[in-house]
Specification:
Elements lengths: L1 H7 L5 H15 L8 H16 L5 H15 L6 H11 L11
Helix pairs in contact: 1-3, 2-3, 2-4, 3-5
């Protein structure tokens, strides 16, 4: 939850963060999800972006997020995708603005 609070920078309520955390936990515990820290951080940013852009229905958020996670954050991702995630989220504070 702390990761999500830090990324959201106080812009989401506790109940909104709980919805996002439930979806985050669902996706990141799948056997196919890449468990590297940069993948987890990148996926957290993606979830918060989806929520901020209006995907607030928990069922819709879950479906979209699971497909996105499978596409972009799986253990079988390409080396190019892995390098991109490392460069964006590996070892530095996440500072990203959302544009919908």
């Amino acid at each position: 939850m702390e990761r999500l609070k830090r990324i959201a920078k106080g812009a989401l309520s506790q109940s909104e963060l709980e919805v996002i955390k439930r979806v985050f936990d669902l996706a990141t515990t799948q056997s196919w999800f890449d468990d590297a820290q940069y993948s987890r951080d990148g996926f957290a940013v993606a979830l918060i972006d989806l929520f901020r852009c209006g995907i607030v229905n928990p069922t819709q958020l879950e479906k979209i997020a699971l497909f996105w996670a499978l596409s972009d954050f799986s253990q079988t991702m390409s080396s190019i995708q892995r390098a991109k995630l490392r460069s964006l989220y590996g070892g530095c504070e996440i500072e990203r603005e959302v544009s919908c």
